[in-house]
């Protein structure tokens, strides 16, 4: 367990000393000299200090935004004039913010539903698909994830506007950029994401339950819904929530393929910070944070509960699933 | 599978691959395939075609064939080189920041590991835009920028609008993407190898260099690619923290597609960007797999 031979007296964290009765020469070799021991303590201290500093680095900006959203000031955002909720009141009653929030929720919910359903379907289908299909499909999944967002964004814009230019006169349509184009473009990345999460889950799945279900004369349909799907559910839920969050927070793709009347919250926030950060901006940001963090907590609860019910084989929390996936 | 003999009753096994199961498979993969074809392959193909085309009279695109767009992309290479330098610097800083932290969480956190991971996921889960603009307050004249200016006695000292601000934003934004893969490889690593190395008299540093580092190399590579690639196309961070003065490929693409509406020139630049990325990925993978018999490092 412990990576080092030195005792962990310096660190307060539990660690199991690794020396388990190694004999003679080995023991002599690893016996710490005072200089080595001092160096070991230094390394432990540095690792700990570094980790704490990075956590501070990660959290301070978020905390700053939240704190200054409660600032009562009417002037500069950092000019602290006492605690107040007035900016929340003013922001939440602002018609522009209200409609941006509604737009964001529409886009994110639609994207998440589309991505979760089609991504899961693709993961299941790909298991049974022949190799000649699977390989190019996997290559495209890779491309959809690795290509920078801005390239996807401009390619989508070019595609939508040129196909609208062709289709509209022929069929007398009035297609234009708006919710459907934003949702379609968001779903591309997120379908791939859900598919990867569900595939990872599928490959780690215990086949014996499925075999048992067939042995008990269950139909494939019933086997799927009673055995396979419950086991996949944590991955589907995690995928749904991640898609929702990514879509809800997306700026780059949205700014390229949105039209009049489909301004989302990130677009609104970006527009206001160009004129300077105000407590009102921070209040909108804090509302966004609240929404996405609620989603994260709900997801953790759902997935953890599901894992317990499934026999607690793994504490598959959303966090761990994201971590696993990026490996 | 159990072979059916006379003693064992015939049991229904999984249905054989039939026409129906083929149709089901097709149905399952159809939506995602359509998405890939219509919203990925086709748009990228259009971008490539457009990159050889002419600019329309009112912006946009007019059919034609010219290499001028590429010529002009190569004439003004500054955004590309700025992007490359920033992407390299950002990736290396992320590596330096992530490795000790991932190492600490994987080997020293003990029972609190899950807590540490959740604490990492929360910033990852919060809006990129908000996390970026938060630095406007921190680095601004009322924050760190002003403070350093006071200390060095230079009232014109600024951090915002400089490449340093963009670099800070970049490391901040992409750090979680670097930590996760490194953590996973460290977590899966067989720790007894480290014990063995120590038993054989190797010190901390040589154990790390000879045992740990080669094993976690795939994680380092994955993390570097996950950071480097999106960084090459970054737009939000330079636009906000660099005030648009730190001009990257992403800024130029936004300018050409949304403002000056010179689509063919923008398309050519996008194609060049994709090519640069492909070359870097191939180079990374070649570098990582150098001297190995089997190809161990892939991205997904």
Can you lay out the helices and strands and say which pair or pack?
The complex is a heterodimer of chains A (327) and B (300).
Chain A: H1 24-30, H2 34-68, H3 86-92, H4 95-128, H5 131-146, H6 149-171, H7 179-203, H8 207-215, H9 220-249, H10 252-257, H11 265-273, H12 279-309, H13 318-325
Helix pairs in contact in A: 3-12, 4-7, 4-9, 4-11, 5-7, 7-9, 8-9, 9-12, 11-12
Chain B: H1 19-50, E1 54-55, E2 61-62, H2 68-75, H3 78-108, H4 113-125, H5 128-139, H6 144-152, H7 163-188, H8 192-199, H9 204-232, H10 236-241, H11 249-259, H12 263-289
Antiparallel strand pairs in B: 1-2
Overall mean confidence score, pLDDT of chain A: 82
SS-based structural class of chain B? mainly alpha
Helix content of chain A: over 70%
Task: Tell me which CATH architecture of the largest domain in chain A applies here.
Answer: Orthogonal Bundle
Oligomer: heterodimer
Overall geometry of chain B comes to globular
Order of helices and strands of chain A: HHHHHHHHHHHHH
**Number of continuous helical runs of chain A:** 13
Radius of gyration of chain A: 26 Å
- How much helix, percentage-wise, in residues of chain B? over 70%
Q: Give the number of DSSP strands of chain A.
A: 0
The greatest inter-chain interface is formed by: A-B, 115 and 112 residues
Question: How many domains in all of chain B?
Answer: 2
């Amino acid at each position: 367990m412990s990576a080092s031979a030195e005792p962990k007296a310096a660190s307060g964290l539990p660690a199991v000393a690794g020396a388990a009765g190694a004999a003679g020469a080995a023991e002599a070799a690893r016996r710490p000299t005072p200089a080595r021991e001092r160096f070991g303590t230094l390394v432990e201290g540095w690792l700990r200090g570094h980790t704490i500093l990075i956590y501070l680095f990660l959290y301070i900006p978020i905390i700053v935004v939240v704190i200054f959203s409660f600032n009562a000031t009417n002037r500069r955002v950092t000019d602290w004039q006492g605690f107040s909720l007035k900016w929340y009141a003013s922001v939440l009653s602002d018609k522009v913010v209200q409609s941006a929030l509604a737009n964001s929720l529409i886009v994110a919910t639609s994207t998440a539903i589309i991505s979760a359903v089609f991504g899961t379907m693709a993961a299941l289908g790909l298991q049974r698909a022949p190799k000649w299909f699977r390989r190019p499909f996997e290559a495209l999944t890779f491309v959809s994830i690795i290509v920078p967002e801005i390239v996807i964004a401009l390619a989508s814009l070019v595609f939508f506007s040129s196909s609208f230019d062709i289709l509209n006169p022929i069929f007398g349509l009035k297609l234009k950029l708006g919710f459907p184009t934003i949702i379609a473009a968001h779903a591309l990345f997120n379908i791939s994401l859900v598919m990867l999460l569900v595939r990872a889950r599928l490959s780690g799945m215990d086949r014996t339950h499925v075999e048992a279900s067939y042995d008990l004369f269950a139909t494939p349909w019933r086997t799927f819904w009673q055995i396979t799907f419950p086991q996949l559910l944590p991955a589907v839920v995690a995928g749904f929530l991640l898609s929702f969050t990514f879509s809800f927070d997306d700026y780059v793709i949205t700014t390229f393929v949105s039209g009049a009347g489909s301004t989302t919250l990130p677009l609104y926030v970006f527009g206001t910070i160009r004129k300077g950060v105000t407590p009102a901006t921070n209040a909108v940001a804090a509302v966004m944070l609240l929404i996405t963090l609620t989603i994260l907590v709900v997801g953790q609860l759902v997935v953890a509960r599901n894992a317990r019910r499934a026999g607690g084989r793994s504490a598959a929390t959303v966090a761990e699933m994201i971590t696993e996936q990026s490996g | 599978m159990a072979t059916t003999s006379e003693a064992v009753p015939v049991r229904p096994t999984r249905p054989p691959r039939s026409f129906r199961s083929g149709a089901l498979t097709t149905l399952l993969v159809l939506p995602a395939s359509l998405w890939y074809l219509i919203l990925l392959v086709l748009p990228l193909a259009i971008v490539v075609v457009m990159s050889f085309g002419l600019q329309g009279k009112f912006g946009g695109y007019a059919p034609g064939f010219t290499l001028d767009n590429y010529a002009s992309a190569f004439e003004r290479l500054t955004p590309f080189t700025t992007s490359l330098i920033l992407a390299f610097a950002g990736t290396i800083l992320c590596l330096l920041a992530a490795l000790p932290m991932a190492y600490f969480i994987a080997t020293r956190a003990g029972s609190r590991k899950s807590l540490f991971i959740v604490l990492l996921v929360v910033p990852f889960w919060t809006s990129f835009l908000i996390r970026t603009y938060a630095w406007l307050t921190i680095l601004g004249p009322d924050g760190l920028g002003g403070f350093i200016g006071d200390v060095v006695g230079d009232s014109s000292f600024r951090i915002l609008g400089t490449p340093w601000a963009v670099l800070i934003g970049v490391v901040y934004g992409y750090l979680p993407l670097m930590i996760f893969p490194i953590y996973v490889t460290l977590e899966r690593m067989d720790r007894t190898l480290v014990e063995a190395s120590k038993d054989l008299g190797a010190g901390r540093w040589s154990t790390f260099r000879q045992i740990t580092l080669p094993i976690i190399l795939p994680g380092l590579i994955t993390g570097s690619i996950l950071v480097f690639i999106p960084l090459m196309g970054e737009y939000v961070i330079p636009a906000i923290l660099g005030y648009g003065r730190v001009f990257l490929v992403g800024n130029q693409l936004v300018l050409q597609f949304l403002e000056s509406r010179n689509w063919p020139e923008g398309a050519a630049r996008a194609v060049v960007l994709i090519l640069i990325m492909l070359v870097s990925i191939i180079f990374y993978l070649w570098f990582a797999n150098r001297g190995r018999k089997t190809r161990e490092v892939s991205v997904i």
